[in-house]
Amino acid sequence: MQVFAATKNAGKLRELRVIFRRYGWTLDAFEGYRDPEEVEDSYAGNAALKARALSAQLRAAGLDAAAIGDDSGFEVSALQDRPGIRSARYGTPGATWAQRRTALLTEFARTGSADRRARFVCALHLVEADGTEQAAIGTIEGRLASAERGEGGFSYDAIFELPAGHQTFAEVSEGEKNAISHRARAAEALVAGYADPRAALGSEATKRE
Q: Which of 126, 137, 134, 123 is nearest to 58 (CA)?
């Protein structure tokens, strides 16, 4: 199955391609993709906005193909689950990812909290060529690292510590990350829902267990 991904994030696209390849899906970028304004208040809502925007752009270009949207975020318990859906816009306008990571560690330090619980969340939304839609969400729980570690990954990977082994996402291999990540879990759920549309995989968890 060929799908176009609604993203301009090279790291995200690379991961999506690898993850969906195991299910026989081929993900491509659409050169003319234009991001919609992310006005929703949930990951699921923003993922749907992106997928629907790309689907409309594909149709306008004469392409009869499926579109997938991804909205992801990093949540820190002591910061009331921020930056959350604003993860890519956290910090000062135009900040780099390195600057956002530094700002997040600084903000956490100011709280004086010993609660380092953190998690990544990924919502995926698929709009098929015939207009049928599927949605799913995946999460992975861990801890906020005390400092950046590792050279791999992107976004907040270098400050997200896995509970087992205490490595950050930036310290493990791409293969290891793509086997257990929030994005991998959302993809697994999405493909299951695609195979069985009756599966209740479109709801978004809003509370920690």
A: 126
Distant-in-sequence, close-in-space partners of 121: CB < 8 Å, separation ≥ 6: 43, 72, 73, 74, 75, 84, 137, 138, 139, 182
Distance CA(80)–CA(8), nearest Å, equals: 28
71 belongs to the catalytic site: yes
Distance, CA of 126 to CA of 196 (rounded, Å) = 14
Looking at 46-159, which runs of residues are DSSP E strands?
A: 66-76, 82-84, 117-127, 133-144
Beta-bridge partners for 122 = 72, 138
Q: DSSP string spanning 25-59?
A: -EEEE-TT--PPP---SSHHHHHHHHHHHHHHHHH
Q: What are phi and psi of 85, to 5 degrees?
A: -70, -10
Rounded CA separation 19/41 (Å):
26
Residue 19's contacts (CB-CB under 8 Å, 6 or more residues apart) are 178, 181, 183, 184, 187
Residue 189 CA to chain centroid, in angstroms? 14
Instruction: Using the structure block, give the residue that is written with the tokens 């697994």.
Output: 188
pLDDT tens by residue, 42-68: 999 999 999 999 999 999 999 999 999
Q: Over the stretch 122-152, which tens digit does the pLDDT of each residue have?
A: 999 999 999 999 999 999 999 999 999 999 9
pTM: 0.90
Catalytic site residue from 28, 70, 71, 196: 71
